[in-house]
Amino acid sequence: MFLFLDTETTGLPKYSATNNPVEKWPRVVQLAWSLDSGDGDCESPNSFIIYSDGLFHPDGLCTNPAK
């Protein structure tokens, strides 16, 4: 079995952010994975969008159309 993971974020870490370490890191907005057998058969593909109320995504991703 092989597990493939993929994440989508709001960008790269900001090294010039304030002293609050939470503001320095991007937010995960999508998580996807695929569990595949050794023969190449896809056993369990999944993809989830992570909703965060009031969070502005600088790349233009909006949670309303995704719902």
Shape: elongated
Largest sheet: 3 strands, antiparallel
Backbone CA Rg: 16 Å
Q: Strand fraction band?
A: 35-45%
Order of helices and strands: EEEH
List the domain count as a whole number: 1
In which range does the helix fraction lie? under 10%
Short description:
By secondary structure, this protein is mostly beta strands. Helix content is 6%, strand content 37%. It has one domain (2-66).
What do you see in this structure?
With 67 residues, the chain is mainly beta. The protein has one domain (2-66). Helices cover 6% and strands 37% of the residues. It contains one helix and three strands. The protein has one helix spanning 63-66, and strands at 2-9, 28-36, 42-49. Strands 1-2-3 form a three-stranded antiparallel beta sheet, with no helix packed on it. The termini are far apart. The mean pLDDT is 76.
